[in-house]
Amino acid sequence: MSAISAYRKEGRAAARLDKLGVIVAAIALFALFLQPFALFRANRIVAADNVMVWSAMPLWQAIILVVAMLAAIALILFRTPVNLRLGVSIAAIAVLALMVGRAGYYLMPADNPYARVSPGASFWILLFAFSIAMADAIVRKALPPMMRIAFLIVAAVAIGLLLWSGAWNDLSILKEYNNRASAFWREGRTHVELAFGSLAAACLAGIPIGILCFRVPRVRATILNSLNVLQTIPSIALFGLLIAPLAWIGRNVPGAAELGIAGIGFAPAIVALFAYSLLPVVSNTVAGLDSVPRDAREAARGMGMTGRQRLFQVELPLAFPVILTGIRIVLVQNIGLAVIAGLIGGGGYGTFVFQGIAQTATDLVLLGALPVVGMAFAAAIILDALVELSQTRAKKGSRA
Fold first, then answer.
1. Is 198 exposed, middle or buried (0-12, 13-18, 19+ CB in 10 A)?
2. Which intervals hold domain ABC transmembrane type-1 (predicted)?
3. How far is it, in rounded angstroms, from Cα 25 to Cα 126?
4. Would you write out the chain's pLDDT as a tens digit for each of its 400 residues?
């Protein structure tokens, strides 16, 4: 009987464990005790020295950090209420953000302005683990679309306050930013122009092409297959293929050079991004129009609507959620692909990424990469919310 009782107790204990929490806890423990919390360099390009958490700050601060992380891990490990899991994950991320700043202040020598202190693998892995736990809690809460956008705004404000407070001023990524502040915002504007400009051009061209494919089935396969072939060309290869023809246009077509058309720079970058954007926009337009209920079309036809009226007043509004899903795919894709424009002088945050790679300066790479990740993440959340809102509106419209 005692063996059976012990087995039952073990079963109940296992049942109380959260499956994702076990994975998050294992990752967090590995990072906390086996990975460096900070990296110290005598200057920005030499090899880094690993600094474990207990050496990265005063001992009492290290103890506070370890105890806080262990408490958060324990709460996430078991099946705790969703609100508690969300609060613990946010608190853990906040503590990490503050403590890595303290590590920079503690490790930065006062007599060496060239030294660099960077967050180590422990910080990034712990941040990843608790971000997964936070995202899981948000999904379990099933937050409505506007609440998700509000959550994103609060997170952006919190990050802004952290940077404004000076808590990270001793970290090397902020030193890289201070050296390139004007260039950072200039390249950020270029990155946005590349991503959103190519998206706008793809929508202006792709939605009419999608409508054509839907209305004329015999051209659908040809157009979609051609765009599929274009999509299979590697991004760097496509950027390279565009250099020669655009250079010829810039030299030989009157007024082209004045418009900025050349073999390298902004023009080939935005043309390549436009080309990659067409397939998702066209295919989702076709899929959206295909998904319009036949009853809605018949009702519109019975009301005496013309083909144009049916398209703009019935079919496109009902297809809009699917079309918007394609736009979401394109925007997130283009924010990432725009990094490669830095290779051909197109500007954007890729400029910092490739400069950092060439100089073996990891923090310069991060200065370009982190804003891109943040922009893509924000775009995905906002457009996911807009897709959900449009789906709700479309359902109400189809019932009406």
1. buried
2. 188-383
3. 10
4. 454 554 454 445 445 888 889 999 999 999 999 999 999 988 877 788 999 999 999 999 999 999 999 999 999 999 889 999 999 999 999 999 999 999 999 998 877 778 889 999 999 999 999 999 999 998 888 888 888 899 899 999 999 999 999 889 899 999 889 888 999 999 999 999 999 999 999 999 999 999 999 988 888 888 988 888 888 888 777 777 777 777 777 777 777 676 667 767 788 888 889 988 999 999 999 999 998 888 888 887 888 788 788 888 888 888 899 999 999 999 999 999 899 888 888 888 999 999 888 887 888 899 999 999 999 999 999 999 988 888 777 666 555 5
**Which structure tokens are listed for 132?**
């997964």
Buried b (16+ CB within 10 A) or exposed e, 361-391: bbbbbbbbbebbeebbebbbbbbbbbbbbbb
- Tell how far CA 394 is from the center of its chain: 27
Asked if residue 176 lies in contact with residue 364, where contact means CB atoms within 8 angstroms, the answer is: yes
CB-based contact 53:39 (threshold 8 Å): no
The class level of CATH for 181-399 reads mainly alpha
pTM of the full structure: 0.85
Cβ proximity of 328 and 379 under 8 Å: yes
What count of other Cβ atoms lies within 10 Å of the Cβ of residue 244? 11
Tokens of 52: 């474990």
